[in-house]
Amino acid sequence: MYQVNLSLASCFGNQFACGDGSCQPLEYRCNKRKDCLDGSDEQDCGLVELDSSYVKDYSPPSDNEGEKFHISLRVSIYSFLKLSETDFLSSMQFQVHLSWKDARVNFNHLTEDLQKNILTEEEKSSIWIPVIVFHNTQEKMLSKIDIKSTLLVERKGGHRLSPVSQPWKSYQYDGHKNDLHYFHTYSTNFQCDFLLYSYPFDTQECYMIFSLPTNLINLVEIDLKTADYLGDKQLSQFTVDDYHIVKNYTEKELPQGSQVIKFVLKRRFLYQVVTVYIPTFCLLIIMHTTHYYPMKDFEASVMVALTGMLVMTTLLLNVSNNLPPTNYIKLIDVWMLFGMVNPFFDIILHAIVGYYHERVLIWEVLCTHHMQIKQKSLPKKLFSFRRESQLMVEKTTDGSMANCTSSGAKPHFGRGCPRSSCRSPRASSSWCTG
Questions:
Q1: Can you give the pLDDT at residue 92?
Q2: Contact at 8 Å (CB) between 15 and 27?
């Protein structure tokens, strides 16, 4: 036995009857404004109408048999909250917008103003809402249906008058012609593989990957319509150089139907240039000037090189602490290692130059001393040489010169005539040359 309440009024087809019998246009029914004096136009204003066969755990059927149910996805990225190379994370604030049609649901009292078509918490919990997976988050986070999420209906047409079984006349809208929209804002950490080979002159690529739960992969498909970045492109460490939807993502194996958004981030390297490269370059110049110090300042040159080496080591450790440990050498590591090795070779060079400089000084002292001794003995040697020369002249004058002359040979002063021309018994003496 059923009981149905009927309202009797003399209103036109495009009007509804208030509780006091007055008539109002059907567009005023449940418009969040009191138009009837008794307020009856704002009674029984539920938007969702479900039949007894509706099961919220099942996804809606597709319009075409054999095809997957279609869901549209739109993502609006508001800002990058944090980019961490040490944790390999990119933290973003973004809004997920899902839209779909559910032919099993009928809607009442829809208006052109979307803000008046928002479903209540009770209505949200009564219908099927798609769930997506943020695939490259640490815990593969799922989209949420909570008090922060908004679910509304967009009126597109297909209305008809409500059945007479309803106590109040209203327009009713078919679910397969009017879209359901889901909105939720998230602040989530996505994994980002920072490749630091060229740090700090590097360009990074970070991704947002959306997929479906395992139980929906064969039933539902996601179509990523748009991806909009609404934040400031000049970040503290990076510049958002580009972002776009990747249709054929092949770098990693992903679940079927995954949707990918790619961000290209260029590092702003001025900070590293000012705090690392310029100080170390100036330090290298200072260490190089020690090659022009006098040799008497050898100890000062070595101390400057050692101090520079310690400062370079401290800077290298400071830079390394702000970066993740990697099994490859970064560009900044090459520069810092060069800065550490350079003073090491400076010290070796100073030691070699100092050693040979000391050897040269010793040889100079020895040579000077030897020359002084030679200069003192030179007059005695000259007197002895003159005396010997005089004796030789006297000997040749006594006999050897005559023998040379009789043989027709030309005598040599101080030595006599050639040995072959000497006929005298003295021919064998040392004063004959030949």
A1: 96
A2: no
Cβ partners under 8 Å of residue 397, min gap 6: none
Which H helix or E strand runs over 316? helix 298-321
Other CB atoms closer than 10 Å to residue 243's CB: what's the count?
A: 17
Question: What was the pLDDT predicted at 29?
Answer: 84
Helical pair 278-288 and 331-395, crossing angle rounded to 10 deg: 10
Ramachandran quadrant class, 316 (left: phi over 0; alpha: psi -120 to 50; beta: rest): alpha
Question: Does a structural domain hold residue 235?
Answer: yes
What's the CA gap between 71 and 80, in Å, rounded? 26
pTM attached to this predicted model: 0.73
Q: What pLDDT is stored for residue 390 in this prediction?
A: 59
Q: What is the mean pLDDT of each run of 10 residues along the chain (434 residues)?
A: 59 81 84 85 86 89 87 96 92 96 90 89 93 93 92 86 70 89 96 93 95 92 95 94 90 88 95 90 88 81 86 85 85 88 84 80 77 64 56 54 47 45 43 40
Number of residues written out for the chain: 434
Whole-number Å distance between alpha carbons of 315 and 412: 84
Phi (first) and psi of residue 158, to 5 degrees: 75, 35
Residue 11's CB: how many other CB atoms inside 10 A? 17
**Domain harbouring 361, CATH code:** 1.20.58.390
Distance between CA atoms of residues 119 and 321, nearest Å: 51
Q: Report the CATH number at residue 19.
A: 4.10.400.10
Instruction: Give kind and range of the element (H or E) at residue 347.
Output: helix 331-395
Instruction: Kindly list the distances between the CA atom of residue 431 and the CA atoms of 76, 362, 383, 385, 404, in Å, as whole numbers in the listed order.
Output: 119, 45, 21, 16, 11
Report CA Rg, the chain: 52
Domain range enclosing 35: 13-43
Q: For residue 189, what is the domain's CATH number?
A: 2.70.170.10
The 3-state DSSP composition of the chain as helix, strand, coil percent (nearest 5) reads 35, 25, 40
Residue 428 within any structural domain of the chain: no
End-to-end CA distance of the chain: 164
Tokens 């101390």 label which residue? Answer: 303
| Token output for 67 | 């095809």
